[in-house]
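Is LMY7XDAE placement plausible here? Inputs below.
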Amino acid sequence: MTAEIIDGKAFALDLRERVAALSADFAAKAGRQPGLAVVLVGDDPASQVYVRAKGKATLAAGMLSFEHRLPASASEDEVRALVEQLNADAAVDGILVQLPLPDHIDEHAVITAIDAGKDVDGFTPENVGRLASGLDGFVPCTPLGCLMLLKDRIGDLAGLDAIVIGRSNIVGKPMAALLLGASCTVTIAHSKTRDLPAKVRAADIVVAAVGRPGMIKGDWLKPGATVIDVGINRIAGDEPGTTRLVGDVDFAGAMAHAGAITPVPGGVGPMTIAVLLRNTLVAAHRRAGVALARDAI
Ligand SMILES: Nc1nc2c(c(=O)[nH]1)N[C@@H](CN(C=O)c1ccc(C(=O)N[C@@H](CCC(=O)O)C(=O)O)cc1)CN2
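Reply from A.M.:
I modeled the complex. C-alpha coordinates:
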Protein backbone atom coordinates (compact mmCIF):
# COMPACT_ATOMS: atom_id res chain seq x y z
CA MET A 1 0.00 0.00 0.00
CA THR A 2 1.22 3.51 -0.79
CA ALA A 3 -0.52 6.24 1.14
CA GLU A 4 -2.19 9.18 -0.54
CA ILE A 5 -0.59 12.50 0.36
CA ILE A 6 -3.01 15.02 1.81
CA ASP A 7 -2.04 18.37 0.27
CA GLY A 8 -2.62 20.82 3.12
CA LYS A 9 -0.88 23.59 1.21
CA ALA A 10 -3.35 23.41 -1.68
CA PHE A 11 -6.34 23.12 0.68
CA ALA A 12 -5.09 26.14 2.66
CA LEU A 13 -4.64 28.22 -0.50
CA ASP A 14 -8.19 27.44 -1.58
CA LEU A 15 -9.50 28.36 1.89
CA ARG A 16 -7.57 31.64 1.80
CA GLU A 17 -9.10 32.50 -1.58
CA ARG A 18 -12.60 31.81 -0.26
CA VAL A 19 -11.89 33.95 2.81
CA ALA A 20 -10.61 36.78 0.59
CA ALA A 21 -13.82 36.73 -1.50
CA LEU A 22 -15.99 36.78 1.65
CA SER A 23 -13.82 39.51 3.16
CA ALA A 24 -14.56 41.71 0.11
CA ASP A 25 -18.30 40.98 0.54
CA PHE A 26 -18.00 41.94 4.21
CA ALA A 27 -16.24 45.22 3.38
CA ALA A 28 -19.02 46.10 0.92
CA LYS A 29 -21.72 45.41 3.53
CA ALA A 30 -20.01 46.78 6.67
CA GLY A 31 -18.16 49.69 5.08
CA ARG A 32 -14.88 48.57 6.60
CA GLN A 33 -12.37 45.73 6.27
CA PRO A 34 -11.93 42.96 8.87
CA GLY A 35 -8.91 43.70 11.10
CA LEU A 36 -6.43 41.33 12.75
CA ALA A 37 -3.93 42.40 15.42
CA VAL A 38 -0.91 40.20 16.10
CA VAL A 39 1.27 40.72 19.17
CA LEU A 40 4.85 39.45 19.16
CA VAL A 41 6.91 39.67 22.34
CA GLY A 42 10.64 39.07 22.02
CA ASP A 43 12.76 37.85 19.15
CA ASP A 44 12.19 34.11 18.80
CA PRO A 45 13.26 33.47 15.18
CA ALA A 46 10.47 31.01 14.31
CA SER A 47 7.83 33.32 15.83
CA GLN A 48 9.16 36.22 13.76
CA VAL A 49 8.74 34.14 10.58
CA TYR A 50 5.18 33.10 11.53
CA VAL A 51 4.15 36.65 12.46
CA ARG A 52 5.50 38.03 9.19
CA ALA A 53 3.64 35.30 7.28
CA LYS A 54 0.43 36.10 9.16
CA GLY A 55 0.73 39.81 8.32
CA LYS A 56 1.24 39.10 4.62
CA ALA A 57 -1.62 36.60 4.49
CA THR A 58 -3.94 39.04 6.30
CA LEU A 59 -3.30 41.79 3.76
CA ALA A 60 -3.65 39.32 0.86
CA ALA A 61 -7.10 38.37 2.21
CA GLY A 62 -8.20 42.02 2.00
CA MET A 63 -8.02 42.54 5.77
CA LEU A 64 -6.25 45.16 7.87
CA SER A 65 -3.14 43.92 9.64
CA PHE A 66 -1.98 45.51 12.90
CA GLU A 67 1.38 44.21 14.03
CA HIS A 68 2.63 45.01 17.54
CA ARG A 69 6.16 44.08 18.57
CA LEU A 70 7.33 44.34 22.16
CA PRO A 71 10.90 43.67 23.39
CA ALA A 72 11.71 40.41 25.22
CA SER A 73 12.11 42.55 28.35
CA ALA A 74 8.44 43.70 28.27
CA SER A 75 6.61 43.01 31.51
CA GLU A 76 3.42 40.97 31.81
CA ASP A 77 1.56 44.19 32.72
CA GLU A 78 2.78 45.86 29.52
CA VAL A 79 1.59 42.95 27.37
CA ARG A 80 -1.77 42.88 29.14
CA ALA A 81 -2.12 46.66 28.73
CA LEU A 82 -1.57 46.27 24.97
CA VAL A 83 -4.19 43.51 24.85
CA GLU A 84 -6.67 45.77 26.71
CA GLN A 85 -5.97 48.55 24.20
CA LEU A 86 -6.69 46.14 21.30
CA ASN A 87 -9.86 44.89 23.04
CA ALA A 88 -11.13 48.48 22.99
CA ASP A 89 -10.07 49.22 19.38
CA ALA A 90 -13.13 49.14 17.08
CA ALA A 91 -10.99 48.44 13.99
CA VAL A 92 -9.64 45.22 15.52
CA ASP A 93 -11.84 42.12 15.06
CA GLY A 94 -9.24 39.52 15.99
CA ILE A 95 -6.37 39.49 18.48
CA LEU A 96 -3.58 36.92 18.47
CA VAL A 97 -0.67 36.84 20.91
CA GLN A 98 2.08 34.78 19.30
CA LEU A 99 3.26 31.89 21.48
CA PRO A 100 5.56 31.05 23.12
CA LEU A 101 5.92 34.15 25.30
CA PRO A 102 9.20 34.83 27.16
CA ASP A 103 9.53 32.72 30.32
CA HIS A 104 8.90 35.58 32.77
CA ILE A 105 5.38 36.16 31.35
CA ASP A 106 2.44 34.00 32.42
CA GLU A 107 0.79 32.94 29.13
CA HIS A 108 -2.48 32.16 30.85
CA ALA A 109 -2.66 35.66 32.39
CA VAL A 110 -2.14 37.28 28.98
CA ILE A 111 -4.55 35.03 27.08
CA THR A 112 -7.24 35.50 29.71
CA ALA A 113 -7.07 39.26 29.09
CA ILE A 114 -8.19 38.84 25.44
CA ASP A 115 -11.85 39.67 24.74
CA ALA A 116 -13.41 36.25 23.94
CA GLY A 117 -15.24 37.81 20.96
CA LYS A 118 -11.87 38.77 19.44
CA ASP A 119 -10.04 35.57 20.47
CA VAL A 120 -9.43 34.20 16.97
CA ASP A 121 -6.90 31.71 18.41
CA GLY A 122 -9.66 30.13 20.54
CA PHE A 123 -7.38 30.02 23.59
CA THR A 124 -9.40 31.99 26.19
CA PRO A 125 -11.12 30.00 28.95
CA GLU A 126 -14.51 31.05 27.55
CA ASN A 127 -13.78 29.66 24.08
CA VAL A 128 -12.13 26.52 25.51
CA GLY A 129 -15.30 25.94 27.57
CA ARG A 130 -17.53 26.58 24.57
CA LEU A 131 -15.67 23.98 22.51
CA ALA A 132 -15.85 21.45 25.36
CA SER A 133 -19.59 22.12 25.71
CA GLY A 134 -20.30 21.89 21.97
CA LEU A 135 -21.27 25.59 21.80
CA ASP A 136 -20.36 28.07 19.05
CA GLY A 137 -17.12 29.93 19.72
CA PHE A 138 -13.63 30.28 18.32
CA VAL A 139 -11.73 27.03 17.84
CA PRO A 140 -7.88 26.91 17.82
CA CYS A 141 -6.59 27.20 14.25
CA THR A 142 -4.34 24.14 13.94
CA PRO A 143 -6.85 21.54 15.21
CA LEU A 144 -9.70 23.10 13.22
CA GLY A 145 -7.46 22.90 10.13
CA CYS A 146 -6.78 19.21 10.89
CA LEU A 147 -10.53 18.53 11.18
CA MET A 148 -11.15 20.24 7.83
CA LEU A 149 -8.51 18.02 6.16
CA LEU A 150 -9.99 14.90 7.77
CA LYS A 151 -13.55 15.72 6.69
CA ASP A 152 -12.36 16.54 3.18
CA ARG A 153 -10.66 13.14 2.88
CA ILE A 154 -13.07 10.89 4.81
CA GLY A 155 -16.43 12.70 4.87
CA ASP A 156 -18.49 11.65 7.90
CA LEU A 157 -16.17 10.73 10.79
CA ALA A 158 -18.92 9.29 13.03
CA GLY A 159 -18.02 6.01 14.71
CA LEU A 160 -14.37 6.02 13.69
CA ASP A 161 -11.65 5.28 16.24
CA ALA A 162 -9.27 8.22 16.61
CA ILE A 163 -6.12 8.65 18.65
CA VAL A 164 -4.61 12.04 19.46
CA ILE A 165 -1.01 11.75 20.59
CA GLY A 166 -0.19 14.82 22.68
CA ARG A 167 -2.26 16.76 25.19
CA SER A 168 -1.24 20.41 24.68
CA ASN A 169 -3.80 23.18 25.10
CA ILE A 170 -3.06 24.45 21.56
CA VAL A 171 -3.48 21.17 19.67
CA GLY A 172 -4.04 17.91 21.57
CA LYS A 173 -6.94 18.83 23.85
CA PRO A 174 -8.95 20.90 21.31
CA MET A 175 -8.30 18.26 18.63
CA ALA A 176 -9.75 15.56 20.89
CA ALA A 177 -12.80 17.77 21.60
CA LEU A 178 -13.35 18.35 17.87
CA LEU A 179 -13.10 14.64 17.04
CA LEU A 180 -15.50 13.83 19.87
CA GLY A 181 -17.84 16.50 18.49
CA ALA A 182 -17.65 14.67 15.14
CA SER A 183 -18.74 11.47 16.98
CA CYS A 184 -15.39 9.67 16.84
CA THR A 185 -14.34 7.38 19.67
CA VAL A 186 -11.31 9.28 20.94
CA THR A 187 -8.21 8.18 22.82
CA ILE A 188 -5.78 10.84 24.08
CA ALA A 189 -2.26 9.48 24.45
CA HIS A 190 0.65 11.17 26.24
CA SER A 191 4.03 10.49 27.80
CA LYS A 192 2.57 8.17 30.45
CA THR A 193 0.41 6.14 28.04
CA ARG A 194 1.16 2.40 28.17
CA ASP A 195 1.70 0.38 24.98
CA LEU A 196 1.28 3.28 22.55
CA PRO A 197 1.90 1.11 19.45
CA ALA A 198 -1.10 -1.09 20.32
CA LYS A 199 -3.33 1.95 20.84
CA VAL A 200 -2.21 3.51 17.55
CA ARG A 201 -2.85 0.19 15.75
CA ALA A 202 -6.50 0.31 16.82
CA ALA A 203 -7.09 3.76 15.30
CA ASP A 204 -8.65 4.71 11.96
CA ILE A 205 -7.44 8.29 12.50
CA VAL A 206 -4.06 9.17 14.02
CA VAL A 207 -3.24 12.77 14.96
CA ALA A 208 0.36 13.16 16.08
CA ALA A 209 1.23 16.31 18.04
CA VAL A 210 4.09 15.46 20.38
CA GLY A 211 7.03 17.41 18.98
CA ARG A 212 9.32 14.35 18.72
CA PRO A 213 10.75 13.73 15.26
CA GLY A 214 9.67 10.45 13.66
CA MET A 215 8.37 9.00 16.94
CA ILE A 216 5.30 7.27 15.43
CA LYS A 217 6.48 4.31 13.37
CA GLY A 218 4.86 3.10 10.16
CA ASP A 219 4.31 -0.45 11.41
CA TRP A 220 2.32 0.88 14.39
CA LEU A 221 -0.42 2.01 12.00
CA LYS A 222 -3.62 0.17 11.15
CA PRO A 223 -3.46 -0.51 7.38
CA GLY A 224 -5.33 2.27 5.58
CA ALA A 225 -5.38 4.67 8.57
CA THR A 226 -5.54 8.41 7.96
CA VAL A 227 -2.56 10.14 9.56
CA ILE A 228 -2.42 13.84 10.43
CA ASP A 229 1.08 14.90 11.40
CA VAL A 230 1.10 18.16 13.38
CA GLY A 231 4.78 17.96 14.35
CA ILE A 232 7.18 20.52 12.90
CA ASN A 233 10.66 19.48 14.02
CA ARG A 234 13.87 20.93 12.64
CA ILE A 235 16.64 18.31 12.45
CA ALA A 236 20.11 18.14 10.90
CA GLY A 237 20.01 17.72 7.11
CA ASP A 238 22.04 15.28 5.01
CA GLU A 239 24.62 17.92 4.03
CA PRO A 240 26.80 19.33 6.83
CA GLY A 241 25.46 22.60 8.21
CA THR A 242 21.96 22.12 6.74
CA THR A 243 18.67 21.46 8.49
CA ARG A 244 15.29 20.14 7.40
CA LEU A 245 11.78 19.88 8.79
CA VAL A 246 10.24 16.54 9.73
CA GLY A 247 7.03 15.56 11.48
CA ASP A 248 6.29 13.36 14.49
CA VAL A 249 5.54 10.43 12.18
CA ASP A 250 8.20 8.37 10.38
CA PHE A 251 6.98 9.48 6.96
CA ALA A 252 8.68 6.80 4.81
CA GLY A 253 7.46 4.02 7.11
CA ALA A 254 3.95 5.45 7.26
CA MET A 255 3.72 5.68 3.47
CA ALA A 256 3.78 1.87 3.35
CA HIS A 257 0.94 1.38 5.86
CA ALA A 258 -1.35 4.43 5.97
CA GLY A 259 -4.21 5.17 3.60
CA ALA A 260 -3.39 8.87 3.62
CA ILE A 261 -0.96 11.17 5.39
CA THR A 262 -0.16 14.87 5.68
CA PRO A 263 3.46 15.71 4.78
CA VAL A 264 5.78 18.02 6.76
CA PRO A 265 6.19 20.66 5.49
CA GLY A 266 3.11 21.32 3.36
CA GLY A 267 0.48 19.51 5.41
CA VAL A 268 -1.03 20.90 8.59
CA GLY A 269 1.25 23.97 8.95
CA PRO A 270 -0.27 26.07 6.13
CA MET A 271 -3.77 25.35 7.50
CA THR A 272 -2.94 27.22 10.73
CA ILE A 273 -2.74 30.61 9.02
CA ALA A 274 -5.63 29.92 6.63
CA VAL A 275 -7.92 29.07 9.57
CA LEU A 276 -6.72 32.16 11.44
CA LEU A 277 -8.01 34.27 8.54
CA ARG A 278 -11.25 32.28 8.53
CA ASN A 279 -11.72 32.91 12.27
CA THR A 280 -10.98 36.63 11.80
CA LEU A 281 -13.61 36.81 9.07
CA VAL A 282 -16.15 35.16 11.39
CA ALA A 283 -15.20 37.56 14.23
CA ALA A 284 -15.70 40.57 11.95
CA HIS A 285 -19.18 39.38 10.91
CA ARG A 286 -20.22 38.73 14.52
CA ARG A 287 -18.92 42.08 15.77
CA ALA A 288 -20.51 44.05 12.93
CA GLY A 289 -23.80 42.11 13.09
CA VAL A 290 -23.45 41.07 9.43
CA ALA A 291 -24.85 37.62 8.61
CA LEU A 292 -22.49 34.88 7.43
CA ALA A 293 -24.08 31.60 6.36
CA ARG A 294 -23.09 28.74 8.71
CA ASP A 295 -21.64 26.64 5.89
CA ALA A 296 -20.13 29.61 3.97
CA ILE A 297 -16.63 28.79 5.11
N1 LIG B 1 -0.85 32.32 19.13
C1 LIG B 1 -0.40 31.24 18.47
N2 LIG B 1 0.89 30.88 18.58
C2 LIG B 1 1.33 29.77 17.92
C3 LIG B 1 0.46 29.03 17.09
C4 LIG B 1 -0.90 29.42 17.01
O1 LIG B 1 -1.75 28.79 16.32
N3 LIG B 1 -1.29 30.54 17.70
N4 LIG B 1 0.94 27.97 16.32
C5 LIG B 1 2.36 27.72 16.23
C6 LIG B 1 3.10 28.38 15.10
N5 LIG B 1 2.36 28.77 13.90
C7 LIG B 1 1.57 29.86 13.96
O2 LIG B 1 1.67 30.69 14.81
C8 LIG B 1 2.62 28.16 12.62
C9 LIG B 1 3.39 27.01 12.52
C10 LIG B 1 3.69 26.47 11.26
C11 LIG B 1 3.22 27.07 10.09
C12 LIG B 1 3.58 26.56 8.75
O3 LIG B 1 3.03 26.97 7.77
N6 LIG B 1 4.57 25.64 8.64
C13 LIG B 1 5.09 25.19 7.39
C14 LIG B 1 6.62 25.14 7.47
C15 LIG B 1 7.21 26.48 7.75
C16 LIG B 1 8.74 26.46 7.77
O4 LIG B 1 9.32 26.25 6.73
O5 LIG B 1 9.30 26.68 8.87
C17 LIG B 1 4.60 23.79 7.06
O6 LIG B 1 4.37 23.00 8.00
O7 LIG B 1 4.47 23.50 5.87
C18 LIG B 1 2.44 28.19 10.20
C19 LIG B 1 2.15 28.73 11.45
C20 LIG B 1 3.07 28.14 17.50
N7 LIG B 1 2.63 29.39 18.01
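Short version: The first helix runs from residue 8 to 30.
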